[in-house]
Amino acid sequence: MSRSVRTRGLVDRAVTVLCVAATALAIVPLFSVLYYVAARGLGGVNLAFFTELPAPVGEVGGGAANAIVGSLELVALACLIGIPPGILAGVYLAEYGNSRLGQLVRFSADVMAGVPSITVGLFVYSLVVLSTGHFSAYAGGLALAIIMLPTVTRTTEELLRLVPEALREAALGLGVAKWRTTVSILLRTALPGVATGVMLAIARVFGETAPLLFTSFSNRYWAESLNEPTASLPVQIFTYAVSPYEDWHRQAWAAALLLVVFILVLNVSARLLVRPRV
Amino acid sequence: MQMSQAQSVDTRPNLPEAADGSSGTQSVVRDVSGNKLRTRQLRAFFGKAEVLRGIDLEFPERKVTAIIGPSGCGKSTFIRCLNRMHEVVPSATCTGEALLDGKDIFRMDPVRLRREVGMVFQKPNPFPTMSIRDNVLAGLRLNGIKVADPDALVEKSLRQVAMWDEVKDSLGRSGMSLSGGQQQRLCIARTIAMQPKVILMDEPCSALDPIATARVEELIHELRDSYTIVIVTHNMQQAARVAHFTAFFYMGELVERGETKEIFTRPSQQRTEDYITGRFG
Amino acid sequence: MTAVSTEYPPSQGQVTNRRPPSQVNWGDRAFKVTTAGFAILIIVTIVAMALEMLTSSKLSLREFGWRFLTSTDWNPVAGTFGALPFIYGTVVSSLLALALAVPVSIGVAMFLSEMAPPQLRGPLAFAVELLAAVPSVVYGLWGIFALAPLMRDHVEPALRLVFGFLPFFQGPNQGFGLLTGSMVLAIMITPTITSVSREVFRAIPRTFREAALALGATRWESIRTGVLPVARPGLVGAGILGLGRALGETMAVTMLIGNRPEISASLFAPSYTMASVIANEFTEATEDLYLAALAEIGLLLFAVTILLNLVARLLVWRVAGTTSGGRA
User: Per residue of chain B (281 residues), what is the pLDDT tens digit?
Assistant: First the structure.
């Protein structure tokens, strides 16, 4: 009998070791990626990177200024297009959402969240690019907005639901109209959480490449308006990485560094704003 | 520094010496005082906060001891120390001694300890994906104990909890298909199938309706001649009904302990009397 | 929120807390309608997506029918399009990624939710979540310059040495192929499976673990008896969600899988996935049939991922049902 207890203890410890190993295994790639991005990216970043346009193909030098600005434009557009509807839809689900319609909406949002981002690109291609006849930042922004939408909606809904009913009832009992109550609760109590959700959605969308491939496409020069093809960091990284030019590889790493730093900052800030349960 | 107190004053109560003259705290000597389980200066901490202050309590063999007291008095913490379940919570620590048949439970392998000290929980918890039959055998299977005739053991255990006739034709059904009271009795069957030396019960009836409660109390009555039972309860009438001995806890301290009848009719401590008469708690 | 009802007759002169109807309803109703409108927008968008994909693929659907799924002939020049190579590449890479990621992810989830000391839990969980924050294209970049050389120079030769008798590990290897693509996919879906699995573990009440411990189980045994059996449907759901993510993953795979529309038994050989072919060839497709074929592949992806997500969610919800049983 005593040996069997010892064996069981050994098995228990072995399982623990395996799980620790699994955790280490899962995290190693993260450190590897961060290391490579930092090491190679820092080497590739220079002033030109931020200020100049790409050099002609094959030539060394140039920068990614248009891609940086382009990415910012696209994400800004995505926020404009995607956040207000997302928040409002989330409000609907939280306040009136216990109906058939609410369930249908929730289901659709879940479906939308799981759909491959490249199919979103296809959709916006048909909707916007084909009808306008050219690639544009608007199209890219719309594609990114569609990707953001379900996340923002669900986050808003969950956060509003977290607010205790007593708060609402107190306000209603004082004669405040329901819509005023909701808006005020939203603005005050739920705001940090919603802001976090938005930040995480932005972080995700900033790195999206596939949907931009045939919506905003890319541009080796400045886009004169939002109605033109626009360069973006992720697409630039993709193009440069698969190319045979060393200097383009260097710039790809620099762009990746920029991207990762931005996303990390957003993620960490979001975490600091609202500490999630562990 | 001189070696003061070479002969320390023995403050341990009534511990008869074993034949070879050694003291009862060594692991080989049997506690012959008739106590299956006893604690000495048992203290418990959650982090830095002391929640149990030096409990000295004995649990005589084959008797039921109830532990009563208001919420937060530490009775659940105490009972969970007795089979070292407190270790499930990382910040919980226990000091002092607890002797099972003279052996210090804190020096034992917790796995072995829990084979000998079983526990029934407040909310019935049969394993949801196991059948009734498998639930009864769960403890034995877990420990790799070979059972010569599992069906006979299942029947015996279920008969002991007065459930055999109710479920004998549906042993394959899930444990969760039973009513709350039946689930609790199944959990008791699962515990006694292990033939433990001590059964700990942490408010076993508080999640049950009155009828189910009555049946479980009946069961405790029937079991009490075969097992040493420690039952935590917030229901004084229940203690009065089923227990030989009762201990009253208050704010982490053992206030008083004695025969149930005495405690409820002639308590020697004012705090005990106040609690019993309902002045607080 | 209605105006004073006419059923309750107020007696003469009784004061009722009543605002003029125009003030009571207007704000609330407008609010409800507006928010409902945007909520419906979500449904509309998804439906529009589905419809649009159907329309775009119509040409190809009509031209090839079921042959589209079974033919390996992808020839834009000749105008024949068979999607089997891409289906093969997608399915195999995703399943392989799943096989690699699931054991690791469940191990991580178990460690984080059942075994890790509380101080470690936070940072480790954060690290695993950061895995999900890295964009796909950055994984691809890293893959090209770090993972692929590693595979080409060390891992694949080692595999060939040990398992070379199997057809999977034969043939030339350049580091860019099905195996490398699967590896990066596995890395990318690990955070998804881990976080859902942790949710599943968290949903299981501690009392089952404690029941097992109280019977004398070791920690692993208490997890095996009191947690895993109940968690199983949820964990399967987590796996399926991971699979769904793997199927739709585009950039990293495109950069590492070799992009050759051929079916080969060897895992070292280059392959092509559905998402990759769309990413690579869509902007170069000029004829309508070509575009329609690519759109049809997109439609397939769309439909399959939706289906998988559905199944996965049902399974994850079921865990909540199993653990709350019994009547009082």
Answer: 344 434 444 443 443 443 444 444 444 444 456 778 889 899 999 988 999 998 999 999 999 999 999 988 889 999 999 999 998 888 899 999 999 988 899 998 999 999 999 999 999 999 999 999 999 999 999 998 888 999 999 999 999 998 999 998 999 999 888 998 999 999 999 999 999 999 999 999 999 999 999 999 999 998 988 899 999 998 888 999 999 999 999 999 999 999 999 888 888 888 888 888 887 76
Question: Tokens 């409660």 map to which residue?
Answer: B213
- Cα C285 to the center of its chain, rounded Å: 28
Q: Output the CA–CA distances (angstroms, integers) from residue B12 to B15, B26, B165, in the order listed.
A: 7, 14, 49
Shortest Cα distance, chain C CAs vs residue A167, angstroms? 18
Chain A CB contacts of C53 under 8 Å are 119, 122-123
Q: In this structure, how many other beta carbons lie within 10 angstroms of the beta carbon of residue C170?
A: 17
Q: Which residues in chain C have Cβ-Cβ distances shorter than 8 Å to B114?
A: 213-217
Q: Tell me which of A99, A123, A144, A200 to substitute to probe the interface with C (most C C-beta atoms closer than 10 Å).
A: A123
CB-CB contact of B143 with B113 (8 Å):
no
CB < 8 Å from B in window 4-23 of A: 4-5, 8-9
Tokens representing C265?
A: 């038994």
**Token pair for residue A109?**
């949002």
* Burial (Cβ within 10 Å: 0-12, 13-18, ≥19) of residue B206: middle
- Which residue has 């986050």 as its token pair? A155
Phi, psi for A230 (deg, rounded to 5): -130, 140
DSSP output for chain B: -----SS------S-PPPTTS--TTSTTS--TTSEEEEEEEEEEEETTEEEEEEEEEEEETT-EEEEE-STTSSHHHHHHHHTTGGGGSTTEEEEEEEEETTEETTTS-HHHHHHHEEEE-SS----TTSBHHHHHHHHHHHTT---S-HHHHHHHHHHHTT-HHHHTT-TTSBGGGSBHHHHHHHHHHHHHTT--SEEEEESTTTTS-HHHHHHHHHHHHHHTTTSEEEEE-S-HHHHHHH-SEEEEEETTEEEEEEEHHHHHHS-SSHHHHHHHTTS--
Per the CB < 8 Å rule, is C229 touching B121?
no
Write the ipTM. Answer: 0.91
Q: Is A273 exposed, middle or buried (0-12, 13-18, 19+ CB in 10 A)?
A: middle
Q: Is C288 on the interface with A (CB under 8 A)?
A: no
- Cα within 13 Å of Cα(C272), Cβ side: 19
**A31: which strand partners?**
none
The pTM of this model reads 0.85
Closest CB from A22, A84, A214 relative to C108: A22
Q: Chain B residues with CB-CB distance to C under 8 A?
A: 83, 85, 88, 90, 111-115, 118-119, 121, 123-130, 138-139, 142-143, 174, 176-180, 183, 187, 190-191, 194, 207-209, 212
Q: Of the candidates A88, A212, A73, A211, which has an alpha carbon nearest to the alpha carbon of residue A149?
A: A88
* Contact at CB, A126 and C56, closer than 8 angstroms: yes
Contact B128 C215 (CB under 8 A): no
Q: Which amino acid is at C277?
A: V
Where does the pLDDT of residue C17 fall: very low under 50, low under 70, confident under 90, or very high at 90 and above? low
Q: C: neighbours with 3+ CB pairs under 8 Å?
A: A, B
**Interchain contact, B109 vs A4, CB within 8 Å:** no
**Pairing between β-strand B92-100 and β-strand B35-46 as defined by DSSP bridges:** antiparallel
Residue B250 phi, psi (nearest 5): -150, 125
Probe site for chain B from C119, C215, C223, C232 (most B CB atoms < 10 A): C215
Residue C241 to residue C223: CA distance in whole angstroms: 23
- Residue C221 touches partner B, C-beta closer than 8 Å: yes
